[in-house]
């Protein structure tokens, strides 16, 4: 059986980096001002969002305002579509919050889920030592992890909280005492099992904790009348003392005032929401992952190949069986990855025709399917039980259900959905559709057809069904509207309405294969007024309800305007939506990347290696470090900007008795003089811990150990910090050392980059240049914030366009849109790509002294040359990027062109700049 990869995917790394930058900004504000207010949270949020969204960074768009729901508690949301690995992301988010905001190696975490089924699944995974989620936590905390539920929280000792990362998995219902009286005893009522946690209660907190009341005193119980008014030993008070990190899984299920009140009651220090479908009114979406990113990283199967069977349910079943068998035949080529493709059948309810019993009988008697290959999962029959569908010995190939499968059910072997219900009316379609999206082992399959999901449906109104499935992908599974065309592929391509009598145009070879849609208008458009190339793709037919217009291929601006002018005003919004979806489907079907066209390789900058061999390598940090033979200098041990602070982020906490509003004042904890108390840890213990955290792959362990030892001794001897102070602040100290090493490395890279700059050459002029080129993959384009404008681009290589905004908040077209349009419309441009920043595996980049430069656009021309464009608008000049781009062009032997485009260059607009550099 194949193993799962624990390394976070690129989009997960980006989401975690955004979280880290936000938390660091918040912490820096606290350190500077001593208080965390709404303005500081809003600034940190806006700056972080802008760092990962070029349109906001450039000023074309404004960031959403931070929703200060929890007052002085940072609260952000990471939007991850279904199948994107939210639980793994949550495990890493714990460490980011603990390290970069709380400064602790022993966090207490409440992991909130919305149902008992998900609680059992999450708890089981986090407690299983061989499960990837638990292995991730163990790797982050060196095995010092405790995971519990409310049932065994009392078994977690005070020493465990001091020495371990403790994760409590619970449902929010656990804490809603007025709804669940059973949990009143375990959350808010006195429990002697928690006595040890309250042996020392800070004097400032005691008045704010729940206290024993007369109602708590029970006959023969442990409490006496003398205990009234004392701090109550209960879970609620324990939460307040520990002030947890809160991970809210599937947070869209928690949007209510009641949930907010519940969470506030436990004084969380930071809240991280994970969901595919956040609501802007409630959530601060810090980073949004696109479904295309999941597809690029092979987390999900796309597209969903959708076939409608107007001939009846038997036809759908027959073709679903053939689809599964074909996939099974292909799966033998995937070894050693074992894959057994499954079908999920959605039968009709008992009062319909194709019921569970009828379907099973058809499979058994008409298709000769053995009994043991069928599992029935309904409200009455639980055939799945504890079956392990991943086990090669499991015979099940077909799962029959009527309604949605139980929460937490997940099997990536499910490839085919066959719904015998009217998908347009069932409420369970999107849940079942989500069951066939996950990719086995989260790796690309060798067989292209095993990278797709399949759906066979029975619907009288195929157009409505497609629209319903699209809506569900957005509303339930977290897909973006603009990528729906790439998500659902009707097969074979069918018109969205009943097929009228064909006319001569239908038989034209030029129209065959083009995506087709029919639109019902109130009056006939003037086809003759359209440009000839558009008019040839539009036909008009009389209809009892008006005029039916069929469009083949792209809906251009001219076609769009003519259709809009001839529809009733009340139908205009629906028409606009239908035309946008048509173009998305057309692009998904006809984009060059989807039709087998290969984008030419793009040469990169290379350097000769000074190792006695005539070898060249692509310029990147590892090569620069090799050339300068960098190692960690033992003289750079002074952490000049470092100052130990209390790692508990000491706070004065108060609550308004009238409003129950929690207020937090951050202050200097040194007044407790804890740093003067001798530590039980030794200097060697501290150095060993720091070395384990700081260790880096390209540095010898002895070098790192010696450097860390030098840092610690310098801090103690030259700056007179006590060992206790350093031990208490060891998480921040480790981060400071890592930052210092990165700074030393960066300086060496800068020096080597400057020294080597004139030796760099475009690989197009080298022998075997293909070895040093970047190749755009036809199937890997992890776009975010995809283009949703009305304009139709004709030459973009991929079906969608990454992070291109049509209009600004003021209603004007954005400068980068104008630049993209100029590229698209230039006669010498054959194909172009909107390059994706911070995606070194999937995008073209040029080297910088520190990091990489991702130009905005890459194009290949009709004369065989390549064009790279960086658009800067009115932003600050960045000479190094411009210099490296010009060097790439200069050393290409005339095969490459670099354009540094600006809004106005000596009076020339971007079109004129493009024409000038291309020679026409």
Describe this structure in words.
The protein has 5 domains: 10-189 and 234-289, 3-Layer(aba) Sandwich (Rossmann fold); 294-490, P-loop containing nucleotide triphosphate hydrolases (Rossmann fold); 504-588, no CATH class; 620-757, no CATH class; 762-918, no CATH class. 33% of the residues lie in helices and 15% in strands. It contains 27 helices and 30 strands. A 7-stranded parallel sheet has the order 3-4-2-5-6-1-7. Strands 10-11-9-12-13-8-14 form a 7-stranded parallel sheet, sandwiched between helices. Helix 1 (10-33) packs parallel to helix 4 (86-102). The longest helix has 27 residues, at 730-756. The model is unreliable at 492-507, 656-660 and 665-672 (pLDDT under 50).
Q: Spans of 5+ residues with little confidence (pLDDT < 50)?
A: 492-507, 656-660, 665-672
Content of β-strand: 15-25%
- Quick one: overall form? globular
Sheet with the most strands: spatial strand order? 3-4-2-5-6-1-7
Number of domains: 5
**Major β-sheet, in short?**
7 strands, parallel
Helix fraction bin? 25-40%
Number of strands: 30
Determine and state the CATH class of the largest domain: Alpha Beta
Over all CA atoms, what is the radius of gyration? Answer: 31 Å
């Amino acid at each position: 059986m194949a193993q799962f990869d624990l390394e976070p995917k690129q989009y997960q790394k980006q989401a975690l980096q955004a979280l880290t930058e936000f938390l660091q900004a918040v912490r820096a504000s606290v350190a500077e001002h001593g208080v965390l207010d709404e303005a500081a949270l809003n600034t940190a949020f806006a700056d972080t969002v802008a760092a990962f969204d070029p349109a906001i960074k450039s000023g074309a768009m404004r960031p959403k305002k931070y929703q200060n729901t929890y007052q002085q508690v940072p609260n952000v949301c990471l939007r991850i579509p279904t199948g994107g690995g939210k639980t793994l992301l949550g495990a890493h988010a714990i460490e980011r919050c603990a390290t970069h905001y709380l400064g602790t190696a022993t966090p207490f975490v409440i992991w909130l889920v919305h149902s008992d089924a998900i609680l059992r699944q999450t708890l089981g995974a986090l407690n299983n030592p061989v499960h990837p989620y638990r292995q991730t936590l163990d790797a982050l905390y060196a095995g010092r992890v405790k995971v519990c539920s409310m049932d065994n929280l009392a078994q977690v000792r005070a020493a465990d909280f001091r020495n371990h990362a403790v994760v409590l998995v619970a449902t929010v219902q656990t804490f809603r005492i007025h709804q669940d009286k059973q949990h009143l005893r375990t959350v808010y009522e006195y429990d002697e099992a928690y006595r040890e946690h309250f042996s020392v209660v800070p004097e400032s907190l005691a008045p704010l904790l729940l206290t024993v009341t007369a109602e708590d005193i029970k006959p023969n119980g442990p409490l006496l009348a003398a205990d009234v008014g004392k701090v109550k030993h209960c879970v609620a008070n324990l939460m307040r003392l520990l002030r947890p990190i809160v991970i809210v899984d599937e947070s869209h299920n928690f949007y209510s005032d009641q949930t907010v009140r519940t969470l506030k009651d436990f004084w969380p220090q930071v809240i991280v929401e994970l969901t595919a479908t956040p609501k802007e009114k409630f959530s601060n979406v810090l980073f949004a992952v696109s479904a295309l990113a999941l597809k690029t990283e092979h987390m999900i199967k796309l597209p969903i190949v959708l076939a409608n069977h107007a001939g009846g349910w038997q036809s759908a079943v027959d073709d679903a069986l053939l689809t599964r068998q074909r996939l099974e035949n292909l799966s033998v080529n995937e070894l050693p990855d074992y894959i057994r493709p499954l079908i999920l059948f959605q039968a009709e309810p008992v009062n319909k025709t194709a019921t569970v019993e009828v379907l099973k009988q058809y499979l058994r008697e008409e298709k000769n399917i053995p009994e043991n290959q069928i599992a029935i999962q309904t409200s009455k029959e639980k055939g799945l039980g504890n079956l392990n569908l991943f086990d090669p010995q499991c015979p099940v190939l077909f799962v029959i259900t009527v309604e949605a499968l139980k929460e937490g059910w997940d099997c990536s072997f499910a490839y085919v959905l066959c719904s015998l219900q009217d998908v347009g009316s069932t409420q369970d379609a999107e849940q079942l559709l989500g069951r066939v999206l996950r990719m086995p082992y989260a790796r690309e399959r060798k067989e292209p057809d095993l990278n797709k999901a399949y759906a066979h449906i029975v619907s009288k109104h195929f157009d409505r069904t497609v629209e319903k499935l699209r809506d569900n992908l957005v509303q339930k599974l977290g897909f973006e509207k603009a990528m729906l065309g790439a998500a659902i592929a009707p097969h074979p391509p069918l018109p969205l309405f009943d097929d009228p009598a064909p006319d001569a145009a239908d038989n034209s070879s030029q129209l065959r294969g083009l995506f087709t849609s029919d639109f019902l208008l109130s009056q006939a458009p003037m086809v003759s007024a359209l440009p000839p190339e558009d008019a040839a793709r539009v036909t008009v037919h009389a209809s009892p309800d008006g005029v039916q217009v069929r469009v083949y291929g792209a809906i251009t601006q001219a076609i769009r305007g003519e259709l809009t002018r001839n529809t009733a005003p009340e139908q205009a919004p629906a028409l606009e939506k239908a035309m946008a979806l048509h173009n998305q489907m057309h692009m998904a079907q006809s984009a060059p990347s989807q039709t087998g066209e290969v984008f030419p390789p793009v040469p990169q900058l290379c350097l000769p290696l000074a190792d006695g061999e005539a070898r060249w390598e692509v310029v990147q940090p590892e090569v620069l470090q090799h050339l300068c033979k960098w190692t960690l200098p033992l003289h750079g041990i002074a952490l000049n900007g470092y100052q130990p602070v209390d790692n508990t982020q000491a706070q004065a906490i108060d609550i308004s008795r009238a409003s129950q509003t929690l207020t937090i004042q951050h202050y200097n904890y040194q007044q407790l003089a804890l740093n003067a108390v001798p530590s039980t840890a030794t200097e060697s213990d501290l150095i060993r811990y720091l070395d384990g955290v700081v260790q880096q792959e390209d540095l010898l362990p002895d070098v790192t150990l010696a450097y860390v030892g030098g840092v610690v001794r310098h801090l103690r001897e030259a700056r007179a910090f006590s060992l206790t102070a350093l031990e208490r602040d060891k998480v921040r100290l480790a981060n400071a050392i890592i930052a210092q090493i990165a700074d030393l490395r960066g300086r060496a890279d800068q020096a080597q980059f400057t020294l080597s700059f004139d030796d760099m050459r475009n690989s197009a002029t080298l022998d075997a240049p293909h070895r040093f080129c970047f190749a755009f993959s036809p199937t890997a384009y992890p776009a975010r914030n995809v283009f949703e404008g009305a304009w139709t681009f004709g030459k973009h290589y991929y079906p969608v366009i990454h992070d291109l905004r049509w209009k600004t908040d003021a209603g004007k077209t954005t400068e980068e849109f104008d630049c993209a349009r100029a590229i698209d419309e230039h006669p010498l441009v054959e194909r172009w790509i909107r390059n994706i920043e911070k995606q070194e595996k999937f995008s073209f980049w040029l080297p910088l002294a520190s990091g990489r430069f991702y130009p905005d656009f890459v194009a290949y021309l009709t004369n065989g040359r390549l064009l790279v464009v960086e658009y800067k608008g009115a932003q600050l000049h960045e000479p190094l990027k411009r210099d490296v781009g010009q060097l790439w062009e200069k050393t290409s032997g005339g095969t490459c062109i670099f354009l540094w485009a600006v809004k106005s260059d000596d009076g020339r607009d971007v079109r004129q700049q493009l024409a000038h550099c291309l020679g026409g």
